[in-house]
Amino acid sequence: MKLKTSVKAVLALATLMGAAAQAAPQVEVLHYWTSGGEAKSVAELKKIMESKGVAWKDFAVAGGAGENAATALKARVMAGSPPTAAQIKGPSIQEWGQEGVLANIDQAATEGKWESTLPPVVTNVMKYKGHYVAVPVNVHRVNWLWVNPAVLAKAGAKAPTNFAEFFDAADKIKKAGLVALAHGGQPWQDATLFESVVLGTGGADFYKKALVQLDQATLTSPTMIKSFETLARIKTYIDKDAAGRDWNLATAMVINGKAGMQFMGDWAKGEFTAAGKVPGKDFLCVAAPGTDKAYTFNIDSLAMFKVKNPEQQKAQLVLANAVMSPGFQEVFNLNKGSIPVRAGAARDKFDSCAQKSMDDMAATSKAGALLPSMAHGMAINTAKAGAIQDVIARFMNSNMTPQAAAQALAKAAKTS
Amino acid sequence: MSVTPLTSGTRPAAAGRRPAANDSTGLPPLKSGSRFGALADAWLPRLVLSPTIVASLVFVYGFIALTAYLSLTESRMMPNFEYSGFGQYERLFDIERWWVSAANLGIFGGLFILFCLAIGLSMAILLDQRIRHEGALRAIYLYPMALSFIVTGAAWKWILNPGLGLEKMMHDWGFTNFTFDWLVDSDMSIYTVVIAGVWQSSGFVMALFLAGLRSVDDSIIKAAMVDGASLPTIYWRIVIPSLRPVFFSVLLVLSHIAIKSFDLVMALTAGGPGTSSDVPAIFMYQFSFTRGQLGLGAASAMMMLATVLAVLVPLMYLETKGARHGR
């Protein structure tokens, strides 16, 4: 009898404690920012939240492209206990919106005046059916070409601004006995290269029609075939060991002067600065050939999930506002190598590459040439992007003709 | 959730030769005579085994059924249980990458099993000649099995990488004409998977065969020797035929390793260059979990299960038939 009472008491106490823990405002954030600079950035967000009286529960799932995180998230949502917020980006936000599990955070958007500080291309990605469901964290530019000026000087070449100059420089570097283009032959890297080539060949409107709207006629047009021809020529400047190479190893080739150039997003800058290199002196960041008037973006964002507890809902809005606050945007992006998503952020602490990126983003946003990156899941849903990626990978690793590749691309775009 | 149907079907192969445990329960009798003892005798084994049975029913066969059903729905990112017919299979058969993976499975599976059997059996026969340091040699050959396929894949990735491993070494030694770039050649990359797989598994096959060889009755061999048969003839006509059950077990184990191969390919080539060394397991994983096409992934998983059954059922049938005839 006595035992029974004490068991009851313990149970009651445990329930009470559980309830108390439930009541305190708390956010649980699922993310895959686990590398050095990224983890530092997340710690910053945690500090801001705790200063506002909201406890932070970390739910980090390692794995660069977030595949593991996505699987963990699906399991949690299916079990009926989603985290407060999760790192989801691009059209995946819409897919989650269709599942009916995302929370409306319009209130935070009104308070923070998001409409006036964010470009419309960006806000559209963050909304589901006209309501904000996600908050953007940073902007990566994808269409960069990273150049080692010492290699160029040795080969007697100059940094290219279009494909004619690019091939000229590449020939000279090759003649000097070095690898002209550092590349990693993984499907996503092939897609990153392809995307920049399409943008450089056809321009912003062509890119939009082909890789965002997936217009069938555009996908098989002569310009697309020309893009594949250019890509085929670029292939000849890549060393044969590129198959399966990680992007950062390719970047290391540029850093060490083994290779002259690399097409890669601005996360590559982190590798250069970590190696103690100075932008403008030891390495150059130039827009990919022919794309200096356009900008392909890759934006990380936190999508908010429906939570029942009103305290938690309030904490969610606090989180959204904290992420958009100029202070966090500056610290986070300084650590991560990307740039703040909001306009008018303080810029003097950023390096010259980041400042150029900010200027180009503002300019292209006005000109309508701010474009979602297809290779990084910003433009089309994962099924279509995957099918297109398969076609590019096949083209890069076989003797497929440009005509056949364009036809295969058009077929892949029909994937439902 | 969908590629685990096999584990319950395979048993430690060497056990096939041993006589069965002495009685049906295998437990020492409890206090015989008392009523409680008799009850416990009858029920304890069932009680102890039932959670395992329930667990396998739910987690193996239950999930196979669930996957089969999912392959008949339009499931995208999350499961959707609305029946929609065989559209996912049509879609699957229309994807060129699926056929690349299926062909790769054929190449890899066939060569992997063939080479493992040939190399494993030859090594077992050679080791069976009562040589010195047999124990040490056996350990050396068997040791690769102690590594996971991930480690094997990563190690062979470095060895076969032309700019890093074998080819570079030969160039450094002055053989500048030497080329071995299968790993980065999209026509040959699947064969590098065969090399790594065979390296890892043939020692294990050798161990099974060696156990089988040791269990062959010495007196038959001696009788054959007395009759003047040569050693190759003895092996070819007497020893190898009596290894039939071992062959079955080895085939079972190897074929399911081949069909579910995921980690080795992932670590060695990651399905590349491009998608040229893709196998169905990687296809299934990518489409279900990273491309939000759960229904399509389930359909590909069912095709893998069909392949497993196509190999397994005839093998099991032959084996049980052999046992019935009291071979």
From TrEMBL, chain A:
Keyword Transport in record: yes
Protein name, as recorded: Probable sugar-binding periplasmic protein
Signal peptide: 1-23
Origin: domain of life: Bacteria
Function of the protein: Part of a binding-protein-dependent transport system for a sugar.
Classification via SUPFAM superfamilies: Periplasmic binding protein-like II
Gene Ontology CC terms: periplasmic space
Lineage: Bacteria, Pseudomonadati, Pseudomonadota, Betaproteobacteria, Burkholderiales
Pfam families: SBP_bac_1 (PF01547)
Family membership noted in the UniProt record: Belongs to the bacterial solute-binding protein 1 family.
Cell compartment(s), UniProt: Periplasm
Keywords noted in UniProt: Signal, Transport
Native species: Pseudoduganella plicata
Automatic annotation (TrEMBL), chain B:
UniProt keywords, alphabetically: Cell membrane, Membrane, Transmembrane, Transmembrane helix, Transport
Membrane spanning residue stretches: 53-72, 98-127, 139-159, 190-213, 234-259, 294-318
Annotated Polar residues bias: 1-10
One GO BP annotation of this record: transmembrane transport
Pfam families, per database record: BPD_transp_1
Residue ranges of the region described as Disordered: 1-28
Source species: Pseudoduganella plicata
Cell location: Cell membrane
GO cellular component: plasma membrane
Record-linked PANTHER family: ABC TRANSPORTER PERMEASE PROTEIN
Sequence ranges assigned to domain ABC transmembrane type-1 in this UniProt record: 102-317
Compositionally biased intervals (Low complexity): 11-21
Protein name: ABC transporter permease
Family to which this protein belongs: Belongs to the binding-protein-dependent transport system permease family.
Lineage of source species: Bacteria, Pseudomonadati, Pseudomonadota, Betaproteobacteria, Burkholderiales
Protein topology in the membrane: Multi-pass membrane protein
Major location (coarse): membrane
